[in-house]
Design a protein that fits this description.
The structure holds 2 protein chains of 2 kinds. By secondary structure, chain A is an alpha+beta fold. Chain A has 15 helices and 9 strands. Chain A folds into 2 domains: 238 residues, DNA primase, PRIM domain (Alpha-Beta Complex); 113 residues, no CATH class. Chain A is globular and about 70 Å long. Chain B folds into 3 domains: 187 residues, Transcription Elongation Factor S-II, Chain A, CATH 1.20.930.80; 63 residues, no CATH class; 207 residues, no CATH class. Chain B has a 4-stranded antiparallel sheet, with no helix packed on it. In chain B, helix 3 crosses helix 5, helix 3 packs across helix 6 and helix 16 packs antiparallel against helix 17. Classes of the chains: A alpha+beta, B mainly alpha. Chains A and B meet through helix 7 of A and helix 10 and strand 3 of B. Chain A: This is DNA primase. Chain A: GO terms for molecular function: DNA-directed RNA polymerase activity; metal ion binding. Chain A: Keywords: DNA replication, DNA-directed RNA polymerase, Metal-binding, Nucleotidyltransferase, Primosome, Transcription, Transferase, Zinc.
Chain lengths: 404, 492
């Protein structure tokens, strides 16, 4: 398995030459089959060996992009916005005439932001167990963005190690201004405050929980038990249940539980949670409802998506292109189906080493792209199907705009 | 927005507005509020052109500095409202005494807005600042407006929203909608449906219910749509104007005015400080040193320090400081005395030959005998930039950050400014709000005399002129000593 994570320049070059689906990426970004500004005016940035960073590249066709990628052989490359001029002409146009225009609405969720609540691993590590947090995040965001914000073309992409990216390609999403992006992100940001802030969820108004989060609460409630209580066992350590107790605004309950739990600390989290709920049920109705709200906030604090807001707020932010290879893990950043997000295991993602072996041992010949002969195929197909949806919508829009 | 023909019409003619003309356009401004959709098509004089714009600019500059100084919305509203009443009052239809009067006010409002569009469309930075200030002004006026007239105004505009009328739709969302109502209200509450991108601030605060990309906005929150619409329409209009602007470059009368206006935004608006205060005690040469330490803004303290240290000042330094002292109240005889004493290295002969004439000249006693006004912050900031060996200019702009900090501490620490204040001041300086930094220093150093943050140099106004700074400082001291005597009497 050791050569799976081999991302040496020779291996990378072979990957770009034989496997990377440039044509699919082109069509996905371009929204049509013939090159539009969405591709030709799009910024690409390359990270070369030794962390050399090259910005403001742009290309006329998928072939151009492939040629340059194979020449530079970057460890990865990123995709930015469509500018008002070709990014490669940046130095020759007036700075006022060079500004970001359209851009997919993007999100980045990184497992490191969950370090306060996950118990299985920390920092750069990820296992199938902590993927549960990502899965919950995907379900919540998918539902809010589709049902409430009305977006239709969402592409989820595994980031190669410890996170997930989301690209929304609806024409309306591309047109969003920075202000609108900021507004959307701030509506979606629920878990706030730094390390030193114990209670990180403060979204209630005098009228209670905003309707925006109603569905999310239902989803997360059902995820909370299996994920936080059973799998992560978040309240088993003293530190764990102390954090929980600090979030309960009721002195008697907190003292009673602290007493019991420190005498018998080995109770599983689920039992502790039940005991807490029981005590709350015995309270008077008005106190009870306040405490129930506190429980809901705890559910949010442990499971609500933690978005890296800066990525989504500005059109000119760059994000790693799908199907790049993560330099540390050798895993390919593949698109994911949000409906099967629970079954996804980061360890199953094809690595560059594995793909090249498959390519070598493949017997099929003929005029098919390299990736079709490997286990990369289902993932590229997923992207292509997603792109078909965008193309169809753009075609209809164009037809409606044509007056005969 | 600006078609060529409109720009042509816009060119001011050498003719004043006559009452008959304005009467003929009566009814052109049915509402106090204006979305400024159409450019003014009437004729104006060059003077009116500039005056309307400057009056408006005073208000916008104050709004900007309110933001830079973190005033609350209520404070901002009060300060802006006060200035509006002074410079650009708009009567509501009800309070308008004569119809023509309110039409005339609205016409000026309309004209001022469009002149400033021309001045501020030329760079991204200016556009952004102008849009923000204008939108705020609109909000302030909107909130002040009579509610009935406001509704009429809103109905006169087309926002592309749909009213949620069908009982079905309302019924199915009742629970969600109820959870968002600001006040307790009845089921007859009206909602409009707009795309969420039209109400980003409501979305950001989760104050609207969203379904399929549409936001359900209750009638109480409709203002948010209106403000956003105002902002985005103005942004687009300014970009259009910017594209048309090159055609105006040949107009030698307007371009300097417009340039001047856009520079004015940098520093707030100059007040008229061209002559010494008529009343008050005479300022004598010996008093300057003491006054400098108590009342002068940093630029003048710096000049004073340089003069004392080097026993000399270069030309522009003498000009900036000399005119300031003149307006402060130093008579010509005292001025000659002061400068003679200060230039103690010079022989009488050299002083009389090379400097006396200039001093008398600046007092309007030689040459073309003009009464030169003291330099405003705008002039200090933008003209005659200091070069090597010069001491004039605005320290907030022309000093390196390190020098500025140490200079602030040397000059002001005895008056209550300490290192903890530096951060805030330096941040404002970094953003280019030099007059705001200066105003803040004024507030800090007069804190002991009861000046609070946001008070500025009285009524929340910012420093726009060094003499205004000094005059206010002296005034505060006088008020204090009067109160002091009054107190003493009571104690007796």
């Amino acid at each position: 398995m050791s050569d799976d994570a081999d991302t040496s320049p020779e291996v990378m070059l072979r990957f770009y030459k034989m496997l990377y689906p440039f044509q699919s990426i082109f069509t996905w970004l371009n929204h049509e089959h013939t090159p539009t500004k969405l591709f030709t005016h799009r910024e690409f940035a390359f990270t070369l060996q030794g962390d050399v960073y090259l910005r403001y590249h742009s290309f006329n066709t998928a072939e151009d992009l492939k040629k340059q990628v194979c020449t530079l052989n970057p460890t990865r490359f990123e995709i930015g916005p469509m500018y008002s001029a070709k990014p490669r002409d940046k130095k020759t146009v007036r700075s006022a005439a060079f500004s970001p225009q359209r851009r997919e609405l993007v999100f980045d969720i990184d497992m490191t932001d969950y370090d306060g609540v996950r118990t299985c691993c920390s920092a750069a590590d990820i296992c199938s167990r902590c993927w549960g947090f990502i899965a919950a995040a995907v379900k919540v965001l998918q539902s809010i963005l589709v049902e409430q914000f009305g977006f239709r073309h969402l592409l989820w992409v595994y980031s190669g190690r410890r996170g997930i990216h989301l690209w929304i390609s609806d024409p309306e999403a591309l047109d969003l201004t920075d202000d609108q992006r900021r507004a959307l992100v701030s509506a979606l940001t629920v878990v706030e405050g730094g390390k030193e802030m114990v209670k990180k969820v403060n979204v209630r108004t005098a009228k209670g929980l905003p309707p925006l989060l109603w569905d999310a609460l239902d989803t997360l409630r059902s995820a909370f038990g299996p994920l936080v209580l059973d799998d992560q066992d978040c309240f088993s350590s003293q530190e764990g249940w102390e954090t929980l107790l600090q979030l309960i605004p009721d002195r008697p309950i907190v003292e009673k539980l602290r007493n019991e739990w420190s005498q018998d600390p080995d109770r599983p989290s689920a039992q502790k949670w039940e005991e807490l709920k029981d005590l709350i049920h015995k309270k008077k109705t008005d106190v009870q409802s306040r405490l129930k709200e506190a429980l809901e906030d705890i559910v949010f604090q442990y499971t609500y998506p933690r978005i890296d807001a800066e990525v989504s707020k500005h059109r000119n932010h760059l994000l790693k292109a799908p199907f790049c290879v993560h330099p540390k893990t050798g895993r390919v950043c593949v698109p994911l189906d949000p409906n099967h997000i629970d079954r996804f295991d980061p360890r199953d993602v094809p690595t560059i080493g594995q793909l090249l072996r498959e390519l070598n041992s493949s017997t099929s010949r003929g005029e098919v792209a390299g990736w079709e002969k490997t286990s990369l195929k289902p993932y590229v197909d997923l992207l292509d199907r997603h792109t078909m949806g965008i193309l169809e919508e753009v075609r209809i829009m164009k037809r409606n705009n044509t007056t005969w | 927005m600006f078609r060529h023909s409109e720009i042509k019409n816009f060119k001011p003619q050498k003719r004043t507005l006559t009452t008959s003309e304005s009467a003929s356009t009566a009814g052109e401004y049915p509402y106090r509020l204006n979305f400024y959709e159409r450019p003014p098509l009437f004729e104006v004089t060059v003077e009116d052109f500039e005056e309307c714009a400057i009056d408006r600019l005073r208000i916008l500059a104050e709004i900007e500095s309110s933001y830079a100084r973190n005033r609350t919305w209520e404070e901002l509203k009060e300060v802006t409202g006060k200035l509006c009443r002074k410079y650009l009052h708009l009567n509501s239809n009800q309070t308008a005494i004569g119809h023509i009067n309110s039409q005339e006010q609205r016409k000026r409002d309309h004209l001022g807005h469009f002149v400033l569009r021309l001045a501020f469309c030329r760079s991204e930075e200016l556009r952004r600042r102008f849009v923000k200030a204008e939108t705020t002004l609109f909000q302030v006026r909107y909130e002040e407006d009579d509610s009935l007239e406001r509704i009429e105004f809103v109905n006169s505009l087309n926002f592309g929203w749909t009213k949620v009328t069908s009982a079905d739709e309302k019924g199915s969302l009742e629970e969600e909608l109820k959870a968002l109502q600001v006040k307790q209200s009845t089921s007859s509450d009206n909602y409009v449906k707009v795309h969420w991108t039209k109400v980003p601030d409501l979305v950001a605060k989760r104050r609207v219910f969203l379904r399929g990309g549409f936001a359900y906005v209750s009638s109480q929150e409709i203002s948010s749509i209106i403000f956003h619409e105002f902002e985005s329409r103005l942004e687009k209009a300014l970009e259009h104007t910017a594209k048309m602007l090159p055609r105006m470059d040949e107009d030698t009368r307007l371009v300097p005015i417009l340039n001047n206006l856009s520079q004015g935004f940098l520093v707030g608006i100059p007040s008229e400080w061209s002559s010494a205060p008529s009343s008050g005690d005479e300022v004598r040469a010996e008093m300057i040193d003491d006054m400098a330490k108590k009342h002068f803004p940093l630029c003048m303290r710096n000049l004073h320090e340089c003069l004392t240290r080097d026993r000399h000042l270069k030309h522009f330094g003498r000009l900036q400081y000399g005119l300031f002292l003149k307006v402060l109240g130093l008579s010509i005889d005292e001025a000659i005395h002061f400068w003679r004493k200060s230039f103690s290295n010079l022989t009488d002969d050299k002083f009389n030959k090379e400097y006396k004439y200039n001093i008398r000249h600046s007092y309007g006693l030689e040459g073309k005998r003009a009464n030169y006004p003291a330099k405003s912050c705008q002039q200090i900031l933008t003209t005659d930039k200091p070069s090597v060996g010069d001491c004039h200019g605005c320290p907030y702009r022309h000093f390196s950050p390190e020098n500025l900090q140490s200079s602030l501490l040397t000059h002001y620490s005895s008056q209550g400014l300490d290192t903890t204040d530096l951060h805030e001041i330096m941040r404002t300086v970094k953003d280019g709000h030099y007059h705001v930094a200066c105003t803040r220093v004024f507030e800090i150093t007069h804190g002991r005399k009861g000046v609070k943050k946001g008070d500025g140099i009285g009524g929340g106004e910012s420093v726009t002129h060094p003499n205004q700074y000094a005059a206010r400082s002296i005034e505060i001291e006088k008020e204090q000593s009067q109160e002091g005597t009054a107190m003493a009497v009571v104690v007796d």
